[in-house]
Write a structure and sequence with these properties.
Helix content of chain A: under 10%
Helix content of chain B: under 10%
Shape of chain B: elongated
Oligomer: heterodimer
Strand order of the largest sheet of chain A: 4-5-6-7
Strand content of chain B: over 45%
Largest sheet of chain A: 4 strands, antiparallel
Chain lengths: 548, 429
């Protein structure tokens, strides 16, 4: 059975599909902040958590434990001297790293960068006595690893492990020839966020590596990446690309999006892509010199297509290129005023927008802040198939703060909202209410186009709009009532006398609508637990009264 | 002109906030609050969006700032089951193992098949670890063979299916078939076993669980080296302790760098009379090993320091006149545990070393009125408990028991069973 890892306040929570939760213990000295969003990436065996912990964490579900993602390296090197035995001749140097091993299998889970080098010992048929082997102050460290050179060499070879975090001495005489079989020291390095001071503000898994971005002001434009699995804890100093030009703004890389054969890199006003298969051929290419991303949490990949929010609307990027989905350029999606006027949303809060995919409605759903408000308390939805937009949606039951794709017992995706009240709210529920501590009705409101007569009609002519017939899905009694408000007159017509459609009737003929140039209908229902599905309507008869 | 206006494409074009109202089409909407377009078995139309409901019954303690769905087994899942299995001997005609998912409630089960019984051990008090947990499977020495005639089988149980994975091939240097497997270990994510051949001789073999193939590690052990009795992973090396060397009551400890060395390196030879290497454990960066003492010498619990030469004594057995032994060395909760037994003198203790001194943590003889031996102790890392299966006095005698230590206290969980003295774990999802 899968689970979800969420940050609630200053704690991480493990939540199963049934809602049962547990709180894994944070390692000593590590805390979580609440003024930014956690970044998580699922890798082999567990989840990396960054950006909000004071030190990057790794959650291991097998052991249900949190540990530092990468241990901090030794601050001092060991001391090397000639031992009382024999065997080696030449100049030798030793280094130490800290290890986190699986206590049950001995598997290496994480390794710190190397310590400073030891002194160089000139051995004369001696064995090597190592003292002062550093001990970590992180309790997760349960072994140390020694590397050493061959006589007179510079290459660091694996020499031995020292189990535990206690012993400070070791003596050995392993031949140089055997070291070559043991292997050279691998690339090691700390990612940002391994110690207080900077954070790993972006995190994503792609091509068997973990990619990130630092909060370091001098490295905002750097695209960082780890070694390949299983060594995703190793972030070499040269394992980086640049989202050029450096320093063009104070934001740098805004977000990543993983497509099958490219890693899309967003800046505020620029898009790039990383392609390639490994560190020897990774390259950065420009996709757009103009379109960028304003909201890192708005980036969602659906069926290998990237969706996101920029300054003036929602965009997608697929094999055809970059397309705006909200300006009507596709023939649909004519919701441009949402993003280009101050009528609907608080555009100052666009950087805080967040989004997710709803697999039931097959929509990209974007959460925004209502005009005049300060939280992302509204959302809109765009069909990924037809580019239809619907909205503006809202709920009276809670304030959405985040969007998470939970998984059911069968590993099906369940879009879920994280709320300010500490609860997770599953979407797409068959019960048509928003249920928090109490049950809130969902306020349904749909407004049609204005009708100017039969077959397009003539808005210059006054018409008699006759009886309205409603067609809807038959609901089981007791059912809700759909309220119809007619607006008959010109475009500024006042609301007319409302009509009521009994939703247990699949077809119902209602009263006359009135006389005027235009007739527009508004459908509304707000009854907890009751559903409505409209197939259409008819107005009959309609005839011209005259030009008035 | 009179007529009728119908609109059965309501909402099919979604919202249109751009075009002037008089040019809007039937499928356009000017508002679609909390609406969704549904395509449901031919019923297509615009309707109310889905509801929302709370997943968790209690507040998680703060604003939900973000998270991720993780398609890995959940630690909260009742379907992720860790089942502990303690082998039973013939005292139970049908049950082959005692099984528990929490270490406290145990029940007899008939699967997997019966593990090797005491009679097939090198001697009655050679109980060692005859099973291991590897990749969630229980790998164990099975009993369904005729010792001395058949090659001993190794079986694997995944919680559902129990199957023979291989049999131990003959040692070309031995005069007959392999007797049994004496120990298993998971070292650097690979599975190794210690095979006991007539001589006594032995070999250390690597078992590939996917293919069932066995690969000998380093040289075989001849009668001078003894039979490999216990395995240990220490400082990244594979270690073996031997027993029953020809001509002397001494034991040896060898080390091996897997994928680097071609032969075992002798590190320790115990003093005369201080017997065989009974158990080993890596603790605080040093290798601790327990021996058995013949009559006239004490068993010792010793430490091989990190120069792999200096050996010091950490604890000494107290019964000079009877054979005694230090078995089942295990690191648990930051301390080192072992079982010290002297059956002839009615001593059986679980002893604990905190890094400074040894104390008796559980006096088995005082609790059970008999000395009981242990082949292996098992640490449950998930709830930080220690499980100890104390062996019955022989095959067919249902006087064994299982103790559990958690939160500093020992509790007897099973009594009156023909316990063999070793445990393993099976993980199922």
């Amino acid at each position: 059975m899968p689970f979800s890892l969420v940050q609630a306040g200053t704690a991480l929570k493990v939540v199963d599909p049934g809602g049962t939760s547990s709180t894994p213990t944070l390692p000593t000295g590590i805390t979580l902040v609440t003024d930014r969003r956690p970044r998580m990436a699922t890798v082999e065996r567990g989840v990396i958590v960054a950006h909000t912990p004071s030190q990057n964490l790794f959650y291991d579900p097998l052991l249900d434990t949190l540990r530092p993602f990468v241990p901090l390296p030794p601050v001092t090197g060991p001391i090397l001297a000639a031992g009382s035995g024999t065997g080696l001749t030449g100049d030798y140097t030793v280094w130490v790293s800290f290890l986190i091993k699986d206590v049950e299998t001995g598997a290496l889970l994480s390794e710190s960068p190397l310590s400073p080098a030891s002194n160089t010992l000139t051995a004369a048929d001696d064995d090597l006595a190592v003292t002062g082997i550093p001990v970590s102050n992180q309790s997760a460290v349960n072994a140390r690893r020694l590397y050493r050179t061959a006589a007179g060499g510079e290459v660091k070879y694996f020499w031995t492990d020292i189990d535990g975090n206690d012993a400070t001495t070791f003596t050995g005489d392993d031949s140089d020839a055997s070291l070559a079989l043991a292997g050279e020291a691998p690339t090691l390095g700390l990612p940002p966020g391994s110690a207080p001071g900077d954070t790993l503000r972006l995190l994503i898994a792609w091509k068997k590596r973990v990619w990130g971005a630092s909060s370091d002001p001098t490295a905002l434009d750097d695209i960082l990446f780890s070694e390949a699995e299983p060594r995703v804890y190793a972030w070499g100093a040269t394992s980086r690309l640049v989202a050029s030009p450096r320093g063009e703004d104070n934001v740098g890389v805004v977000q990543y999006a993983a497509r099958r054969d490219m890693l899309v890199v967003f800046k505020r006003n620029r898009m790039m892509a990383v392609s390639g298969t490994d560190a020897t051929d990774f390259r950065v290419e420009t996709i757009s010199e103009e379109v960028g991303c304003i909201a890192p949490e708005s980036v969602v990949v659906i069926r290998d297509v990237v969706y996101w929010l920029w300054d003036d609307g929602v965009y997608k990027y697929d094999d055809s290129g970059v397309t705006c989905l909200s300006d009507g350029s596709t023939g649909r999606g004519k919701v441009d005023p949402w993003f280009t006027t101050d009528t609907y949303f608080n555009r100052d809060r666009f950087p805080e927008a967040f989004a997710g995919y709803n697999p039931v409605t097959r929509c990209y759903e974007l959460h925004l802040c209502n005009v005049g408000d300060t939280t992302e308390n509204r959302w809109v939805s765009c069909s990924i198939e037809t580019n239809e937009w619907l909205g503006i949606h809202k709920t009276a039951a809670f304030t959405p703060v985040s969007r998470i794709l939970l998984r059911s017992n069968e590993n099906a995706i369940i879009p879920t909202l994280g709320a300010s009240d500490g609860y997770l709210y599953q979407m797409n529920r068959s019960t048509k209410s928003d249920v928090s501590g109490s049950t809130s009705a969902i306020h349904y409101k749909v407004k049609t186009r204005p009708h100017a007569g039969v077959g397009g009609g003539d808005p210059d002519i006054s018409h008699f709009f006759g009886m309205l017939s409603m067609f809807s899905k038959v609901e089981t009694a007791p059912a809700g009532t759909l309220t119809i408000t007619p607006y008959v007159g010109w475009l500024n017509a006042s609301a007319g006398t409302t009509l009521s459609h009994d939703l247990t009737q699949g077809r119902e003929r209602l009263g006359r609508l009135g006389v005027g140039q235009l007739c527009q209908l508004e459908f509304e229902m707000q009854t907890a637990g009751e559903d409505v599905l409209q197939f259409g309507y008819a107005i009959d008869p309609i005839f011209e009264v005259g030009r008035r | 002109m009179a007529g009728k206006e119908t609109n059965f494409t309501l909402g099919t074009k979604g919202l249109n906030l751009v075009d002037e109202p008089l040019s809007l089409q039937d499928g356009d909407l000017q508002n679609a609050q909390n609406a969704e377009f549904r395509r449901d078995g031919g019923a297509q139309g615009i309707g109310l969006r889905g509801g929302t409901s709370r997943l968790n019954s209690a507040d998680l303690g703060g604003t939900i700032l973000g998270g991720a769905g993780v398609p890995l087994p959940s630690p909260l899942s009742s379907s992720l089951v860790r089942a502990f299995h303690a082998a039973l001997s013939t005292g139970s005609a049908t049950d082959t193992w005692e099984r528990s998912t929490d270490g406290t409630t145990w029940a007899g089960v008939t699967a997997p098949a019966r593990a090797i019984i005491q009679a097939k051990s090198p001697a009655s008090n050679y109980l060692n670890q005859r099973c291991v947990s590897f990749n969630g499977n229980l790998v164990y020495s099975a009993n369904d063979y005729t010792q001395g005639t058949d090659q001993p089988p190794v079986r694997v149980y995944d919680g559902t299916t129990d199957a023979e994975i291989c049999t131990i091939p003959d040692n070309p240097a031995s005069s007959g078939v392999c007797n049994t497997v004496l120990d298993y270990i998971v070292h650097r994510q690979r599975l190794f076993l210690a095979a006991y051949d007539p001589g006594p001789r032995g070999r250390v073999l690597e078992l590939d669980l996917e293919t069932g193939q066995l690969q000998q590690i380093g040289n075989a052990f001849d009668t001078t080296a003894g039979m490999p009795y216990c395995l240990c992973s220490h400082n990244g090396l594979l270690w073996v302790g031997t027993a029953k060397l020809a001509g002397a009551a001494v034991g040896r400890i060898y080390s091996f760098r897997v994928d680097v060395d071609t032969s075992w390196t002798l590190r320790v030879t115990t003093g005369a009379g201080q017997g065989y290497i009974r158990s080993m454990a890596s603790f605080q960066g040093e290798l601790y090993f327990g021996t058995n003492g013949d009559a006239g010498t004490d068993a010792l619990l010793r430490v091989l320091e990190n120069d792999y030469t200096t050996v010091t004594t950490s604890d000494t057995g107290s019964k000079l006149n009877d054979p005694d032994e230090f078995d089942a060395l295990t690191v648990y909760d930051g301390a080192l545990y072992c079982v010290y037994s002297c059956t002839g003198e009615d001593i059986s203790q679980v002893r604990k070393f905190d890094g400074s001194s040894w104390t008796t943590d559980l006096d088995i003889f005082a609790a059970e009125a008999r000395a009981a031996q242990v082949g292996q102790m098992f640490v449950n890392v998930r709830d930080t408990s220690l499980l100890v299966a104390f062996c019955s006095t022989g095959d067919g005698n249902s006087d064994g028991f299982i103790y559990r230590k958690v939160s500093g206290s020992w509790v007897k969980e099973v009594t009156g069973e023909d316990v063999r003295g070793f445990l393993g774990r099976v993980d199922t999802v």
